[in-house]
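Subject: design request, 292 residues
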């Protein structure tokens, strides 16, 4: 129809543009109501220590379950949430919810796990992240030393001055700071030195091919070595096979996260990994693929 009207012979839109625009409008209107309607849930993915083979932390990952759309992946709704300015509210909700959950785990006798929470760049650009973190920590009584904020390279690159100040203040509170998806942006390790980071997470795309692609293996090894020189702990994301695990263990990677150990799961399943949910129990390895 648009095609026929276009006198110069070019299309104003086609069918696929039309349906994409429609999907976006539908997603956007539902997303606006999702927080109020309590459609978000936090899942937790275990992080395993290389040294002990036990779960020492979890990453909080948001899920959106809409009655009509079903489960919508973060990759589908978070970019839109950033665009329409909703991501800050979502992040705040995830932070509050996961810190409350951490408190419940502690009361149930779990060891003090590190709680890693993703933070969108918008918090840094135009929002009071420091205030939010301070408030949530005091509301939940959580030890700041158990909270780890995950930032991306883009965040650090975009707002250097302000970010260094904010990160330094968070650091002084005792909060741990991680760089997420390392290797996908354009920053170098020496650039990272300007920020008071504790943890570096190697992006899943490198881990995917460490066994088959010598370049990815070399990048991963160099990253681990330099990160250790800078006194950063190294987490490997997306560990899916025993071969990847062995390679990473053999090359001094500190912490593993991935489907080999566990998908992101609900809070009760994290508690179950430590035996009875309501009693004190020693930490346990999460699964058999991890050799003693
Ligand atoms: P991320 O922070 O890098 O989180 C890791 C992602 O990799 C998660 O995807 C996780 O489910 C997935 N993953 C973990 N292990 C494996 C594996 O072995 N194989 C494969 N193929 N995937 C694995 P998810 O949950 O879909 O989240 C995608 C991204 O969305 C996250 O990447 C993060 O950037 C963002 N995100 C999730 N929750 C939040 C949130 O509460 N706030 C913000 N701002 N971003 C979030
Ligand atoms: Mg993350
Ligand atoms: Mg990541
Ligand atoms: Mg990410």
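Subject: RE: design request

Done. Sequence follows.
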């Amino acid at each position: 129809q648009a095609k026929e009207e276009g006198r110069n012979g070019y299309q104003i839109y086609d069918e696929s543009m039309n349906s994409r625009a429609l999907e976006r409008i539908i997603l956007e209107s539902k997303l606006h109501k999702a927080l109020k309607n309590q459609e978000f849930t936090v899942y937790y993915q275990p992080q395993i220590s290389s040294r002990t083979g036990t779960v020492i932390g979890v990453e909080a990952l948001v899920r959106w379950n809409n009655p009509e759309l079903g489960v919508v992946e973060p990759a589908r709704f978070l970019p839109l949430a950033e665009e329409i300015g909703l991501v800050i509210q979502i992040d705040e909700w995830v932070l509050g919810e996961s810190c409350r959950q951490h408190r419940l785990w502690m009361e149930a006798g779990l060891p003090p796990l590190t709680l890693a929470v993703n933070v969108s760049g918008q918090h840094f650009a135009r929002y009071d992240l420091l205030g939010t973190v301070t408030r949530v920590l005091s509301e939940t009584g959580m030890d700041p030393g158990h909270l780890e904020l995950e930032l991306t390279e883009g965040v650090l690159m975009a707002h250097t001055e302000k970010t260094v100040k904010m990160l330094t203040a968070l650091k002084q509170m005792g909060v741990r700071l991680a760089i997420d998806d390392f290797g996908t942006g354009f920053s170098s390790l020496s650039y990272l030195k300007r920020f008071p980071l504790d943890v570096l997470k190697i992006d899943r795309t490198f881990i995917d091919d460490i066994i088959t692609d010598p370049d990815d293996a070399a990048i991963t090894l160099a990253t681990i070595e330099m990160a250790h020189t800078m006194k950063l702990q190294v987490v490997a994301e997306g560990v899916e096979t025993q071969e990847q695990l062995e390679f990473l263990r053999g090359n001094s990677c500190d912490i593993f996260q991935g489907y080999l150990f566990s998908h992101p799961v609900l809070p009760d399943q994290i508690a179950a990994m430590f035996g009875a949910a309501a009693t004190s129990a020693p930490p346990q390895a999460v699964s058999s693929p991890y050799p003693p």
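DSSP finds 13 helices and nine strands in the chain.
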